[in-house]
Amino acid sequence: MTIVRNTPCLLAPASRFRQLAQAHALWSHPFVERCRAGRLTVQQVRVLGCQMYQFSREFTRFLAKALAVCPHESARMVIAENLWEELGEGDPERAHAALFRRFTRALGISDIQLADIAPEPETKALIDTYLGLSDRHGMLGILGALCYASEGIVGALYSQIEAGLLQAVAFERQDLVFFEEHIHVDGGHADKLESVLLPCLGRGHDIETVETAIREALDARCRFFDGVLRAAQREGEPALAPMAG
């Protein structure tokens, strides 16, 4: 009897895309490993807050780019719903950028100070990567990256980050509401994006386009964490020994 194994070329597109995201080096990045191990320093948390805010406040622009290039009404409805939620459904205090500022304020960083902090090169590169997805890869690329490299992973990623944050700093739960909302909501966003992306896929080239966009987004996120660790060291934190094991 011949056994056919699940090689990438034989997997259904959705399984291929999920497998690509799950196997990415992001999950073994030193920053993410330190979150899981509860070994973040206060300085790393502060740098993370300042730099992650730069990316998070731009997320509405990424969705707007996806909305602008999408010709399908059903897909536009899904993207617009996601965008509406990011904007707080009309309540400025519930906009996700405003929720994130609760986190940075809890770190002792005022909104004025936060606005004056420049993005690290890796943070700017992450933002530019997302803003350019539709130009490089069209509708399929930006939908694929938003689905599988963002909404589809943030539940797991932010759960691990939140665990690290709570070990490093004595936060109140309301300080971390940004993370809580994304942990519990974004899986539904991913399902809806997937439901409109998959019917748009044609031949193998479309699948390769989506995979390329997913890799680009995840690679840029890895480099973002490189920048966080480097900036924390630059600001006076001693270099940390590698994780054991």
Report on the structure:
There is one protein chain. The chain is an all-alpha fold and 245 residues long. It has one domain (28-234): Heme Oxygenase, Chain A. It is 70% helix and 0% strand. The chain contains twelve helices and no strands. Helix 3 runs antiparallel to helix 6, helix 4 packs antiparallel against helix 5 and helix 9 (133-151) crosses helix 12 (204-234). The radius of gyration is 18 Å and the shape is globular. Residues 1-9 and 239-245 have low confidence and may be disordered.
Question: How would you describe this structure in keywords?
Answer:
disordered N terminus, Heme Oxygenase, Chain A, mainly alpha, 245 residues, disordered C terminus
Layout: helices, strands, pairs:
Blueprint: H1 13-22, H2 30-37, H3 42-56, H4 59-69, H5 73-86, H6 96-106, H7 111-116, H8 121-131, H9 133-151, H10 154-168, H11 177-197, H12 204-234
CATH class value: Mainly Alpha
Order of helical and strand elements: HHHHHHHHHHHH
Report the biggest beta sheet as strand number plus sense, adding barrel if it closes.
none
Instruction: Compute the number of helices.
Output: 12
State the helicity in percent bands.
Answer: over 70%
Q: Report the sheet-strand fraction.
A: under 5%
CATH fold assignment: Heme Oxygenase, Chain A
* Unreliable parts: 1-9, 239-245
Rg over C-alpha atoms, rounded to the nearest angstrom: 18 Å
Shape: globular
CATH architecture: Up-down Bundle
Class by SSE composition: mainly alpha
What is the total domain count? 1
Total strands: the figure is 0
Average per-residue pLDDT, rounded, comes to 91
CATH fourth-tier homologous superfamily? Heme oxygenase-like
